[in-house]
Amino acid sequence: MLDLTYDSPAPKVIAGATGDWELVIGLEVHAQVATNAKLFSGASTLFGAEPNSNVAFVDAGMPGMLPVINEECVAQAVRTGLGLKAKINLVSAFDRKNYFYPDLPQGYQISQLYHPIVGEGEVLVEMGNGLARLVRIERIHLEQDAGKSIHDMDPTMSFVDLNRTGVALMEIVSRPDIRGPEEASAYILKLRQIMRYLGTCDGDMQNGNLRADVNVSVCRPGDYERFMETGDFSHLGTRCEIKNMNSTRFIQQAIEIEARRQIAILEDGGEIVQETRGFDPEKGETRSQRSKEEAHDYRYFPDPDLLPLEIEQAWVDDINAALPELPDAKKARFIANFGLSDYDASVLTAEGENAAFFEKVAEGRDGKLAANWVINELFGRLKKDDKDIASSPISAERLGQIVGLIKSDTISGKIAKDVFDIAYTQNRDPDEIVETEGMKQVTDTGAIEAAVDEIITANPAQVEKAKANPKLAGWFVGQVMKATGGKANPAAVNQIVSAKLGL
Ligand code: ADP
Ligand code: MG
């Protein structure tokens, strides 16, 4: 496999009144596990169901109910860990995080504080132009989601929907390795891409499927390097945590705004108070929600209803052996096997379905030409029609046929666009279209010569001009193409026109 090596991008620098500041960011990403049932009950996880219709007794916190671990959720967490090249902990344990909230009827959230199922891993976050940030993962743990309080349906009452209560989440905690707003959103999108390849999280940010708590601090140039050398956090600034973000655009805005807020305080001789803040996109500001002093004492303790979770290496090995090819590997292979540019390979591997479609088009054909047709013609057209690859009106086989027809000089690239349009809109077979519509390229030099002769004879004045100025030969080429309905092989026409004009 091709080894892609990248340089690290420069950190985001903000110039303050007293000198430069650098950004330091660490993310806690909550990814909803893609499973049919909840983490500790058999209730459905289907999105958009009638409120409170997917609630088992255990989700509702009924007395005497016992949680039973859903094996598939564990497998999904292991898969995710393996996809992030992380250490899988064969023994992990569940703890209770105690707090009261109407959408949490148990009175505690079951999470993994002390012994998470997944340990240290890493994610390569490409930033374009041959640059990439390697973001280290600290841990991934499994935990329950809470329900949803609804305050805007009635002027005097609040409602609660427990459908989401107890749904499995993976909390993916990064090291503070992210150095700018763009890196933060690229990091989330990379996690999303990997999890979608793995099938462990749908990554639908609008539905709250993937959300992030964003930790931001600022420091002076050189401080981050000192932190990396020593591991001593005191070289970094105090962080604030912006809670529950589910849009990459807002994450970028919030980071920038929060960093500037901190810089203003520090340059004014103030101190940053560690706290959780919320982002208000309309006002364009972050606002304090609660400070460290008011932090809840969650009184974590091991959940007595659940035994430590023990899994076997052989089971992990089986999961590992069945993992699909992941984005980095696929991209490297596309570059090596099909001769694609870094950019084209990134576009084609962004989604697994797109990559699979491209491979069918390119199989046994010119990879670059296939990439061109998939990215520019097909993706362009799908986007225009607001369709995705799964609902593409033209199949990979048929698009492959078109690429083959171009490559074999049966049709020109220009005619191919017409063939594509007919195949796409009329659901027809490209070979059949070319045959029935008489679209084959004329490569028969005799026929082209005849057409050239005819035009030369009919336009003596043009011939004189072209002889004086060879650039004007293009006019003849254009006339021949017109006369042949665009079907003449352009290279052959060029050559014959030049020869006949004696250029
Ligand atoms: P807590 O358990 O209090 O949330 P963690 O040590 O688990 O604290 O850190 C939470 C997140 O904050 C992690 O993603 C970590 O990388 C990030 N983080 C820690 N220190 C900083 C810092 N100085 N600046 C930015 N992010 C930080
Ligand atoms: Mg935290």
Task: Explain what this protein looks like in three dimensions.
The chain is an alpha+beta fold. It has 3 domains: 292 residues, no CATH class; 112 residues, no CATH class; 56 residues, Arc Repressor Mutant, subunit A (Orthogonal Bundle), CATH 1.10.10. The chain is built from 16 helices and 16 strands. Strands 1, 2, 6, 7, 10, 11, 12, 13 and 14 form a 9-stranded mixed β-sheet that branches. The chain has a 3-stranded antiparallel β-sheet with strand order 5-4-15, with no helix packed on it. Helix 8 runs parallel beside helix 10. The longest helix has 20 residues. The radius of gyration is 30 Å and the shape is elongated. The two termini are 49 Å apart. The model has no long low-confidence stretch (mean pLDDT 94). It binds adenosine-5'-diphosphate (ADP) and magnesium ion. The site of adenosine-5'-diphosphate has 16 residues, from strand 2, strand 10 and strand 11.
